[in-house]
Amino acid sequence: MNSPKVLNVDDIAKPYFVWFEDNWRHDDVLHLHQQKGQLVYVESGFQYLTVEGKMYLLPQNHAAWIPSNALHKTNSHSERIRLMILFFDVHQEAKENSFYHQVNIFSVPPVLKEMIKYAEKWSMNTEENTNENIFLKALYNELPNFVADSIQLHISLPKDKRLTQAINYLNTHYTQDLKMEELSDIASLSLRSLERIFKKETGLTLMKYQQILRIIKSLELLSANEWTISEIAYQVGYKSLQAYTNSFQSVMQYRPSDFAKSL
């Protein structure tokens, strides 16, 4: 009944397919699924996803919906991660619902969490199963109703190679005060050109990019559940807990303590 781990999901004839793996490891290669959308659920740990040139953080107890034909890959993740992926043929009746055509990152409510965990018993099963089909069709149809706490937090990855060194610098020095002149020198661009190209490529100012990067990194640390919120605030570069809380709330629309409670 169980298939080998190396397989092409699009070659699976059944309408639904469950893939569960403890300590998930996946090739860091861009790919897409022509026939199937997918739900990626992180039970513990965290996972980065790149979808259509945007990088998303998938924290613990969150799920991502990735539509069919979306170019994507998994990136770095925590050392220990419990990940469940469910693949779904896109039904004709669902094609009019915008949910199924865009990336959604959302907190998983208890009822969906239990449904996903129940589906684990069909992991890697490539044979048709009536009960599996009925159950997963119901889960699939209800997905749009579970996105009340959707997170549209992502970073667009710039294609302009002139920004490569500046992005690398920001990604490794995000905890430090932003020195515009230093970034300008690194990119070999005037400050005005750097700001204009960066905004065009990412949709963000340099300051906003750094803020979102700090918040994403703090979500990663919050998911690990190893530090206090105050400790995390200082680790990602804020001078006070209040400054971090204000920044977090402006980006996420709720406080870091609210996120910590949801884990």
From TrEMBL:
Key word Transcription regulation present: yes
Keyword rRNA-binding attributed: no
Name of the featured protein: AraC family transcriptional regulator
UniProt keyword terms in alphabetical order: DNA-binding, Transcription, Transcription regulation
Domain HTH araC/xylS-type: 164-262
GO MF annotations in UniProt: DNA-binding transcription factor activity; sequence-specific DNA binding
InterPro entries: AraC-bd, Homeodomain-like_sf, HTH_AraC, RmlC-like_jellyroll, RmlC_Cupin_sf
